[in-house]
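Incident log, support desk, overnight shift.

02:14 A customer reports that sequence design results differ from what the structure should imply. Their input is reproduced verbatim below. On-call engineer (initials T.W.) acknowledged and began investigating.
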């Protein structure tokens, strides 16, 4: 490879997105399980109720202010909403960035959420769903 081609090659590597392979369901009780994509341990945060949906939430990797952290949201079969967005912070979203989650498989969505720096007091992971029935949101504690 010629030296002048090296920057182009390295730039192409940086463009590659999250190619996380589907993960297995994490064990109950917050016990780490191996993550399929190499982002870090997948830790169950429990389940939450968003509108009429029950969602199992797992955190992937280290949690650090000013960086992204991955989350898996697992829905009951045939209950996945059309759109899911999430953010870390306060309910109003002040100082946070909402991120849209992508479908991993028939029951799981995955997304990377920016952790605000500084992290506001009382911050939680907020999940907002959109479906034909409307919009709903709820929160759950994350793991530091």
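02:41 Re-run completed on a clean worker. Output:
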């Amino acid at each position: 490879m010629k030296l002048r081609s090296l920057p182009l090659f390295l730039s192409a590597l940086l463009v590659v997105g999250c190619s996380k392979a589907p993960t297995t369901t994490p064990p109950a009780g917050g016990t780490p399980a191996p993550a399929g994509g190499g982002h870090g341990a997948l830790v169950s945060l429990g389940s939450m109720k968003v509108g009429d949906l029950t969602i199992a939430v797992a955190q992937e990797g280290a949690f650090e202010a000013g960086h992204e952290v991955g989350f898996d949201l697992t829905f009951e079969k045939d209950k996945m909403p059309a759109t899911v967005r999430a953010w870390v912070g306060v309910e109003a979203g002040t100082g946070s960035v909402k991120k849209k989650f992508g479908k991993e498989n028939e029951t799981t969505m995955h997304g990377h959420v920016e952790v605000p720096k500084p992290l506001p007091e009382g911050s939680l992971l907020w999940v907002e769903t959109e479906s034909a029935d409307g919009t709903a949101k709820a929160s759950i504690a994350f793991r530091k």
